[in-house]
Write a structure and sequence with these properties.
GO molecular function: acyltransferase activity, transferring groups other than amino-acyl groups
Number of helices: 5
Pfam family, one: Acetyltransf_1
CATH topology: Aminopeptidase
Keywords: Transferase
Number of strands: 7
Protein name: Acetyltransferase
Structural class: alpha+beta
InterPro entries: Acyl_CoA_acyltransferase, GNAT_dom, MshD_Acetyltransferase
Amino acid sequence: MITIRSAEIEDISQIQRIAREAWLHTYKELYSPSFIDHFLRHAYAEDSLRRSLEKDKQQELPGFLVAELDHQLAGFAQRRQLQEGEHEILRMYVLPRYHQRGIGRAFLRQYTHDLKSGVLIAWVAKENRIAIPFYEKSGFYAAEEKHEVLEGQSKTQVKYVLKL
């Protein structure tokens, strides 16, 4: 059974492990190994995650969640409010061995239950062949594209939207 709960400070090392494994699996053909390593060291640094978790605890509804399956952390997701009625999924990653087990859908169910109305958005790399089918099957639609350059690597990001 999948259990979704608020992420805690004690989960940081597991979140880092999941991020590394998921990023290497998901992005190995989209980004260079040095870019992935650099990104993970900064975006998932302990102090950065600690600040995100502490900020999340100040919110009315938790947005930084973890999924437990088989008595261990199997994934995490984080969302933030952009404006009234508009929320963005900042990150959602599941250990590759737990793909297709309903964890991503469980995160979305929790978010839609908590938010009840408005829109939920997610920016996804256009070449991400794992996330795009997931979001499309979950009722999201592609709304716009933007180009971004990260560490000299140009990628197209697609904004996926779910009306709640």
